[in-house]
């Protein structure tokens, strides 16, 4: 029996997720959203008064920023763009005829100035760089965004549109590395408060093509990415629900991010996959939050 499909069917049957007819694109119930809201409150409570600047991004980002990020060099298979009708009356008539005939009507669509945000932190770096050099303590940001990855799947933990909550640290290498290490420990402590079994392991991003294989190996060899894993649809292949990423000076060079001393800034981010964490809670504690263990309910809703 396919455990992924079984769990997805249970989520549909319970009304927690609502089928839209597209794999990985689901509506969420009020109960599902309550769990995410509760977990985000727990993140804020757990992180404490860090002084982080809070920014909430829309699900689309500036196309020129996207192009400048180099995302298409590494992950073209995941990207999504926003196209719009830009034609005249004749083009509109052709569009209507194509739709009526069941033919492809998208040929007249043109790329807009917006692309779908691939990762919550991607819009942040050029915005911060435009402000000038970082302050004496570097930069710390508390961000959230809907993100898009073109990965159609029947695995409910692999949605095409999902939310990422992140803390992003910018500054000197030692400070950035210390931030990431601190959150690797905090991540385990945070998940313990909601009674989720976790493991942390080295990981890599899904770089594309032949060159991507080398980049994957380099990323793992340098321990640049770790993931916090929780079994959701598979015990043997647990799902990444948090990531701990050290970008070195990649984004600093890309966007000319500078420390207070004028040196190229290093960056790191800690990401929470909010839908995945909600799914982990439903998988491990049951589909009705009212019946969850009291300590879990207190942590999320108390």
Q: How would a textbook summarize the main sheet? A: 7 strands, mixed
Oligomeric state of the chains present here: single chain
Secondary-structure arrangement, i.e. CATH architecture of the largest domain: 2-Layer Sandwich
The top level CATH class name of the largest domain: Alpha Beta
The geometry reads as globular
Instruction: Kindly give the count of domains.
Output: 2
Give the radius of gyration: 21 Å
Structural class label? alpha+beta
Strand content: 25-35%
- So, the CATH homologous superfamily of the largest domain? Bira Bifunctional Protein, Domain 2
Number of helices, where a helix is a run of at least 4 consecutive DSSP H or I residues: 11
Number of strands: 12
Within the largest sheet, what's the order of strands? 3-7-8-12-11-10-9
User: What are the low-pLDDT stretches, counting only 5+ consecutive residues below 50?
Assistant: none
> Helicity, in percent?
25-40%
Separation of termini? 37 Å
User: What is the fold named in CATH at topology level of the largest domain?
Assistant: BirA Bifunctional Protein, domain 2
- What integer is the average pLDDT? 95
State the order of secondary-structure elements, H for helix, E for strand.
HEEHEEHHEHEHEEHEHEEHEHH
Q: How would you portray this structure in words?
A:
This is Seryl-tRNA synthetase. With 302 residues, the chain is α+β, with helices and mostly antiparallel strands. It has 2 domains: 3-80 and 118-301, BirA Bifunctional Protein, domain 2 (2-Layer Sandwich); 81-115, no CATH class. Helices cover 39% and strands 26% of the residues. It has helices spanning 3-14, 30-47, 63-69, 71-74, 89-100, 124-129, 173-193, 209-221, 250-255, 274-285, 294-301, and strands at residues 17-22, 25-28, 53-56, 60-62, 81-85, 109-116, 139-148, 161-171, 199-202, 225-230, 239-248, 266-273. It has a 7-stranded mixed beta sheet. Strand 1 (17-22) and strand 2 form a beta hairpin. Helix 2 crosses helix 10. The mean pLDDT is 95.
